[in-house]
TrEMBL record, chain A:
Belongs to the universal ribosomal protein uL30 family. It comes from Pleomassaria siparia CBS 279.74. It comes from the Eukaryota. Keywords: Mitochondrion, Ribonucleoprotein, Ribosomal protein. The keyword Phosphoprotein does not apply. Residues 59-85 have a biased composition (Basic and acidic residues). Residues 59-94 are annotated as: Disordered. Residues 4-54 form the Large ribosomal subunit protein uL30-like ferredoxin-like fold domain. GO terms for biological process: translation. It is found in: Mitochondrion. This is Large ribosomal subunit protein uL30m. GO terms for cellular component: large ribosomal subunit; mitochondrion. Pfam families: Ribosomal_L30. One of its GO terms (molecular function) is structural constituent of ribosome.
TrEMBL record, chain B:
It holds the Pfam family Ribosomal_L21p. Residues 67-91 are annotated as: Disordered. It comes from Pleomassaria siparia CBS 279.74. Belongs to the bacterial ribosomal protein bL21 family. InterPro entries: bL21-like, bL21-like_sf. This is Large ribosomal subunit protein bL21m. One of its GO terms (cellular component) is mitochondrial large ribosomal subunit. It comes from the Eukaryota. GO terms for molecular function: structural constituent of ribosome.
């Protein structure tokens, strides 16, 4: 099933109340928020009302907010190789 | 008018006297870089040749090498046969040429990345991280396995440039192969800063709210920085290539 990925690129401040209402209905609260909706005629109509403000792309699957964050997260860059407590226990054994 | 001309001439002469001719100026960009990328399609050999005893400080840029130079170079032994579907071998010809040179020079530095932030380190450095590392205690040994530069006095092995993020793809930092080097750090302790007090005020109010904060930072000591030699690296690669 296809989904619309809608990202608010320009703020709705100063727009007519109807446009701001559409943004609110879609859950676009501030710039650069991304929401996913299934491809249906009603969502397409909503996008048409705010087409100057948003970036739209059709994607295969929606991403949750956690997944989006996880994509952006850089790699940790380390792992614990040896615990300090293990070493001390070895010394105690000696 | 004459005055202007004289000042002009003087200023001209002064600049002449201050700066030597451009070809004598130190060329800072020279401090050397052995640029390489993971693309195997880019098979230009690097122009380190002739009198290899003295490592020549040269700014090496793969794309800038004129093709006419390449036939002079001895062709490196090609990596073992690869399937076309297999991922490209990390052992590029430039690594094959220059890793031994990098390896033989003593004392290396690395640019390691922790949570995407770079830290330039050598052995024995103490690093005060700008955060409190979770789930570690003093005495723990960490293995740092993401680096973008391995360098010695004359050579630097650089990872390819990071891929800039777009609307569809997030930024991707390309790191060096983690089998090229060994970097270990010991957690030495936790440092804390002096208590900070921030005064919060509202207009036309006498009341001042004080907000206190005191952050903690993990301190690492870099206990080991080792660059693997070409033989060791090949041995590590071999089981994956077959």
């Amino acid at each position: 099933m296809a989904y619309f990925r809608i990202t608010l690129m320009r703020s709705g401040i100063g727009m007519p109340l109807k446009v701001q209402g559409v943004l609110k209905a879609l859950g676009l609260r501030k710039r650069m928020t991304t929401v996913y909706y299934p491809v249906t005629p009603d969502v397409a109509g909503q996008i048409m009302r705010i087409k100057e403000l948003v970036d739209v792309k059709e994607v295969d699957r929606p991403l949750t907010k956690q997944q989006q964050r996880e994509q952006r997260r850089p790699e940790k860059g380390y792992h614990v190789e040896k615990r300090g407590s293990e070493q001390t226990s070895n010394y105690e054994g000696l | 008018m004459a005055l202007v001309a004289r000042t002009l001439r003087r200023s001209f002469l002064e600049t002449r006297s201050i700066l030597p001719p451009t070809f004598l100026l130190p060329f800072r960009a020279n401090i050397t870089t052995v640029a390489h990328s993971n693309e195997t399609g880019n098979l230009t050999e690097l122009p380190i040749q002739a009198s290899q005893s003295i490592p020549i400080v040269k700014d090496i840029q793969e794309n800038a090498i004129p093709i006419s130079q390449t036939p002079k170079l001895p062709h490196p032994p090609r990596p073992t046969t690869q399937n076309k579907n297999a991922p490209p071998s990390p052992l590029t010809p430039s690594i094959r040429h220059l890793l031994p040179l990098l390896h033989t020079q003593p004392s290396h530095y690395l640019t390691i990345h922790l949570h995407g932030h770079p830290y330039l380190i050598t052995k024995g450095d103490t690093v005060r991280l700008p955060f409190l590392m979770p789930n570690v205690k003093p005495g723990d040994v960490l293995r740092l396995d993401r680096a973008t530069h391995i360098g010695s006095r004359d050579y630097t092995l650089k990872a390819p440039e990071a891929i800039k993020g777009t609307r569809d793809n997030v930024k991707k930092i390309l790191y060096l192969d983690e089998r090229l080097f060994v970097c270990r750090a010991t957690v030495v302790g936790i440092e804390s800063e002096p208590m900070r007090v921030m005064e919060k005020t509202k207009r036309r109010q006498r009341h001042v709210k004080h907000v206190y904060s005191k952050h903690k930072f993990t301190i690492l000591k870099i206990s080991e920085v080792e660059v693997r030699s070409l033989e060791e690296y090949e041995a590590l690669l071999e089981p994956h290539e077959r």
